[in-house]
Design brief:
With 370 residues, the protein is α/β, with parallel strands linked by helices. Helix content is 41%, strand content 20%. It has 2 domains: 201 residues, Isopropylmalate Dehydrogenase (3-Layer(aba) Sandwich); 168 residues, 3-Layer(aba) Sandwich (Isopropylmalate Dehydrogenase), CATH 3.40.718. The chain has 12 helices and 14 strands. Bound molecules: 3-isopropylmalic acid and magnesium ion (MG). 3-isopropylmalic acid (IPM) binds next to helix 4.
Length: 370
């Protein structure tokens, strides 16, 4: 574990600050009860940074992120900033962080908690025990490809352009992350692209195949067209273990996978860069959910995804798998006890606020460490 555990906390917009507050309570708990302490800096990102500084990410905050062992981010965006220039919108702050920190591998677990199996829109027998690890490429593809823009064609027509590009290196490094993860799980990788239509997809398939032959032939590898995968995800999601795909397909399909679990409010993510000589990676952890402006500030939001994101930080950045497991187990227990925030409320359960969910999780943590 790094001697100096530098954590940059960026609550962001909407429900970001209130779910992050529950993480701060758990961080304090870790300090008091487990002797795990962090050197914490807090900053602004997204709309909050626009309001204070006119930009979604200041150079100072970016520098703080570069100097941290991990960044914890709440969520960014909201209707309040709809009229802001496109390159200054809240989401641009998030994209700059991903790109500048070179966080090319985005891990999005889609797991169904037993207590929440009925919250899924799919039948319980389809999703029970579901445990997929999505690995989305995060710093390449059509999100960043050049040329891009909206051009005036001079005849009253305009043309919007984005470019999908992938290089050998970009494909191999993210595929390697997927293969490594698979070895610690079900040992199976599905690689998704549209190689039947797109050259970048064809290259993706070829490079994943080559890397597999060279270094990971012990892992079961399947290639699947991304549209077929969208269908297979709702037909028989348990056929998947690790899925690796590009930035755009990963954005779309990870939302689909997430929704199968019943609540976006339960799902964390980790974005990782390349390992340095000491094996440390730049990393950012954030829940999958957005800012939920409609319920922001009302103490209604589900803090579990944010707490589980912190658990991922403990596991992947700070070598504290035991404490990560304690957070996950505490959440399981609170759910099994019938406590539910509004987003996962079900008949016969006890509806609770963000704060009370936090209280309950802290109580379970106390019991686990007693
Ligand atoms: C996500 C989000 C972002 C993305 C937005 C907010 C830019 O949808 O993290 O999945 O498209 O990557
Ligand atoms: Mg998305």
């Amino acid at each position: 574990m790094p001697a100096n555990k530098k954590l940059l906390v960026l609550p962001g917009d909407g429900i970001g600050p209130e779910v992050m507050r529950q993480v701060r309570r758990v961080i304090d708990w870790m300090d008091r009860k487990r002797g795990v302490s962090f050197d914490i800096t807090e900053g602004l990102v997204g709309g909050a940074a626009i309001d204070a500084h006119g930009v979604p990410l200041t150079d100072e905050t970016l520098a703080a992120a570069m100097a941290s062992d991990a960044v914890l981010l709440g969520a960014v965006g909201g209707p309040k900033w709809d009229k802001v220039a496109f390159d200054k919108r809240p989401e641009a702050g998030l994209l700059t962080l991903r790109k500048e920190l070179a966080l090319f591998a985005n891990l999005r677990p889609a797991t169904v908690f037993d207590a929440l199996v009925d919250a899924s829109t799919l039948k319980p027998e389809i999703v029970k025990g579901l445990d997929i690890m999505f690995v989305r490429e995060l710093t390449g593809g059509i999100y960043f490809g050049e040329p891009r823009g909206i051009e005036d064609m001079g005849n009253g027509e305009r043309r919007g352009v984005n470019t999908q590009t992938y290089t050998t290196t970009e494909i191999r490094r993210v595929a390697a992350v997927a293969f490594e993860l698979a070895r610690k799980r079900g040992n199976k990788v599905h690689s998704l692209e549209k190689g039947n239509v797109m050259e970048s997809g064809l290259l993706w398939r070829q490079e994943v195949t080559r890397l597999h032959q060279e270094e990971y032939s012990d892992v079961e590898l399947h290639h699947m067209l991304a549209d077929n995968a969208a269908m297979q995800l709702v037909r028989n999601p348990r056929q998947f273990d690790v899925i690796v795909t590009d930035n755009l397909f990963g954005d779309i399909l990870s939302d689909e996978a997430a929704m199968m679990t019943g609540s976006l409010g339960m799902l964390p993510s980790a974005s990782l860069g390349a390992a340095d000589a000491n094996g440390n990676r730049k990393a950012m952890y954030e829940p999958i959910h957005g800012t939920a402006p409609d319920i922001a500030g009302k103490d209604l939001a589900n803090p579990c995804a944010m707490l589980l994101s912190f658990a991922m930080a403990l596991r992947y950045s700070f070598d504290r798998a035991e404490e990560a497991g304690m957070i996950e187990a505490s959440i399981q227990r609170v759910l099994s006890g019938g406590m539910r925030t509004a987003d996962i409320m079900a008949p016969g359960m006890a509806r609770c606020s963000t704060t009370v969910m936090g209280d309950s999780i802290l109580r379970e943590l106390d019991k686990l460490s007693a």
